């Protein structure tokens, strides 16, 4: 396993749309393991392949307190969204230290493949629903700040560029 570098906003590669995984093989299973290790080390609760500059539809999520319940979503697809919405505070490994409120559907039904290629369907709500929607946005080239006002986006962009200069 290897730690992967996480792209930071406003890196233009975060805007790339991920392609479906054509075949689940050892390369994809290795990517899943490396993404999981990267997410746990960061630390975070979710990571999309786009965030590590791999533009394929792969997501890892673990919202458990003990970090031992990894969920893998390959080629995820939303089947339904509830009309009820909920506002929740979100953060992102591509925007360290940045948190803001985002309104999303409260409940979703999602289908995907696991790392063995088995299809599954989940009817989810709460934190897992927020995480799946957040990570699926990454696969579409969106970050959570895209839901915020232009003013907030501008401030966050400036803050991230300043942090990047300080790190380099």
Properties at a glance:
Peptide Deformylase; 168 residues; two-stranded antiparallel sheet; alpha+beta; 7 strands
Plain-language structure description:
The model has no long low-confidence stretch (mean pLDDT 96). With 168 residues, the protein is an alpha+beta fold. Strand 4 (85-92) and strand 5 form a beta hairpin. It is globular, with a radius of gyration of 15 Å. It contains three helices and seven strands; from the N terminus they run H-E-E-E-E-E-E-E-H-H. The chain has helices at 26-41, 126-139, 150-167, and strands at residues 46-48, 58-61, 71-81, 85-92, 95-105, 107-113, 119-125. The chain has a single domain (12-167), classed as Peptide deformylase (Peptide Deformylase).
Query: How many domain regions?
Result: 1
Instruction: Write down the CATH class.
Output: Alpha Beta
Instruction: Find the count of extended strands (DSSP E, 2+ residues).
Output: 7
- And the CATH topology? Peptide Deformylase
The helix count comes to 3
Tell me the series of helices and strands, N- to C-terminal.
HEEEEEEEHH
Q: Structural class from helices and strands?
A: alpha+beta
Brief sketch in words of this structure:
With 168 residues, the chain is α+β, with helices and mostly antiparallel strands.
